[in-house]
Specification:
This protein is α+β, with helices and mostly antiparallel strands. The protein contains one helix and six strands.
Length: 118
């Protein structure tokens, strides 16, 4: 009987330790999420697609330059738009778009826009 009690106590301690070690990852999965649809003016010059960059600080994007979210020409090339999902409610996000040509040469960032996620 004592062995079962010790094993149960050890299992509970392991579970509690795991929670405290990984609490940020566990709790972040329960935070409310939302999405934002970005729309921008079409590039008038020759281009092969667009990349989106975003982050929670102005001019500090989660993606390094060259590694933005590649959305290609989008489903509506004359009125490009793309939806960014899994954004945390209550935070403000900053967005910029680049365009690239057929040789994958990327433009400078567009003007930055921001939006508070509700």
């Amino acid at each position: 009987m004592k062995t079962k009690v010790y094993v149960s106590v050890v299992v509970v301690l392991i579970i509690l330790a795991s929670f405290f070690i990984f609490q940020e990852q566990i709790l972040s999965s329960f935070k409310a999420k939302s999405e934002i649809t970005l729309e921008w003016d079409m590039n008038t010059g020759p281009h092969a697609g667009y990349k989106i960059y975003y982050g929670t600080e102005s001019n500090k994007y989660l993606q390094a330059k060259g590694y933005g979210i590649d959305v290609g020409l989008t489903a509506t090339p004359n009125q490009p738009k793309h939806t960014i999902k899994d954004l945390e409610v209550g935070k403000t996000y900053y967005f910029a778009v680049t365009t690239y040509d057929s040789s994958r040469t990327e433009s400078d960032f567009s003007g930055e826009v921001s939006k508070a996620v509700k």
